[in-house]
Each structure stands twice: as structure tokens, then as C-alpha cells.
Amino acid sequence: xxxxxxxxxxxxxxxxxxxxxxxxxxxxxxxxxxxxxxxxxxxxxxxxxxxxxxxxxxxxxxxxxxxxxxxxxxxxxxxxxxxxxxxxxxxxxxxxxxxxxxxxxxxxxxxxxxxxxxxxxxxxxxxxxxxxxxx
Length: 135
Description:
Layout: E1 4-7, H1 9-18, H2 22-26, E2 31-35, H3 36-45, H4 49-61, E3 64-65, H5 69-86, H6 90-108, E4 112-115, H7 118-125, E5 131-134
Parallel strand pairs: 1-2, 1-4, 2-3, 4-5
């Protein structure tokens, strides 16, 4: 597995709601990075001051990685393949698009994605390889 680690939105949401991933998060090793896509998704749902503080700390303490132009183009190609094979709704494709950008960004940096949403990321791995760890 790569040394760069990107933690997916699902892990942070689980953690903020229940503290479920407290120990695994604290024991993470490697170069922990934050995806701008993950931050954007988290900001969409952040309503409490504590959540705002958490997100500001996350962005401050872990360098933010952005999808490249190639990541955007490749994610569109992947979603086209998925749509032709699975005929998902537009809403499901939008949801998968964010996950594809997270996965491709991690792959571009030789890293892995850690998620608690294994099904969507496993689907994406059928179309492009990337390192994945499901909690």
C-alpha cells in the first residue's frame, strides 16, 4: 500500500456522529492528506460550531490534495462506463463522481483511500485500480 493516506468522508461522518473510528484514526500511519473533495462534502453538512472547528483543524493539519485535470477527465470516463453497465440514476452518478475523484487523487499520489463505504469504492475498483482499506 502507498504511504499517502486519504480518509474518506464516510469515516469522518461516522466518527463525528458516533466516535466509532476514534482508535483507528489515532493510530493511522503514513502521510495523512485531506482531499479537497472530502472537505467540500463535509462542509456541506457541517452545521455545528464543533464541526466547523474540526474541519478547519483537519485542513490546517493535513495538506489538502486536489484532483488534477486528468483525474476529472478520467472520472468522467469511468462514470460513463458505469452508467452504460449499471444504468444508475443521475443522483447516484453524482455521488460516485465524488468518490471517483477521491480515489483517483489518492492513486495519483501513490496512496490509499480509507472508507467505511466499501460498496461504492469497490464498484469503482472494478473500473480502475487503486489501494483501498475498508473500515
